Amino acid sequence: MNLTAIAQQSITSAELSLSATSISQAQESSFHITASGMATNAGAIDATLTFPDPIQVYWTSRPNNATDILLGTMNMSPLSVGGTAPKSAIINLDTSFAVADPTVMGEFASFMIQGSSFSWLLVGSAMAQAFGLSFPGLSLSKVVTLSGFNSLPNPSVSAFNLPDSDSSGIHVVTTAAANNPSSITIDMGSVGFNMMYNGTAIGSLQASNVVIAPGMNSLNLDGRMYTTNSDLLSRLFSTFLNGNGLAVSVVGNSVTTSTNTQPSWLNKAFQSLSLAISLPSPALSQPIVSGLAMPSMTISFNPQDSTGNTVSVTAPVVTANFKSPYAFNINVQQVQT
What we know:
The chain is mainly beta. It is built from four helices and 21 strands. It has helices at residues 3-13, 102-114, 230-244, 264-271; strands at 15-24, 30-40, 47-50, 55-60, 69-74, 79-81, 89-99, 117-130, 133-147, 156-161, 165-166, 169-180, 184-197, 200-212, 215-225, 246-256, 274-279, 289-293, 298-301, 311-314, 319-322. It has a 17-stranded mixed beta sheet that branches. It has a two-stranded antiparallel ribbon with strand order 18-21. Strands 19-20 form a two-stranded antiparallel ribbon.
């Protein structure tokens, strides 16, 4: 009986899955990873598996059938294989992931943020201990597939306010909800977004202590709407105050992690994120314009129009009450009826 071959076959037939993964303490060349999961279908023998060298992690099943590419390395905790046959083991990772190439990691992280799933290939050496014996020189080659962030689908805004303004623009305070369909948590730290309208930047938003966890996430955003392009801003507010809302894109711009670093690979991934949201128009307790009055007016008929249907009305003075739903000043340049 070749026990080494049996041990290798147990590793070869085993299936790995991760049910929860967390990424934090991102640096240019490393990040901290914790994960939990299971190894199933792991043969018929109770054993302890150890991994003497760091495990190489490849991005596999890449788009357009691209070849596997190394993302980095990490240490893997021992596995205690047991239970009823086929045997299984609980996976618990709590280690540092060494990034092989920040450019490659940026491409992968962007795919993870945008895609619905991705796969890792774990490659390394293993040693089994069973029956009081050690079996070194075994090989590990396993694919693990995880759900991606899928661009945080169906974002929404639950609160939106413009409390004041200053020389830098109109103050924006909003709360956005974003759904993370994956089982991955990422500690982003402080993030910055550009607020875009039809391809033009109309403002910026920031949020701090951002951790994107599985399920629904609430982001408290604070920033400024630019006032330099007055014509565009006038058109936007005409639409906005008429109750039609404002459809904008919130595009990732920058990440500063909790360790006060800006890893290039994480920033590249975040900059690939674009959330299409609709800012709700304010709920008005009374009309913005009311009490319209013309103390006097002149009605003139066009003598060239024999039907008498062409009429012009002029008034030397028109008064009205104007109440803005926001605290900042609004310069009314034209009123149309």
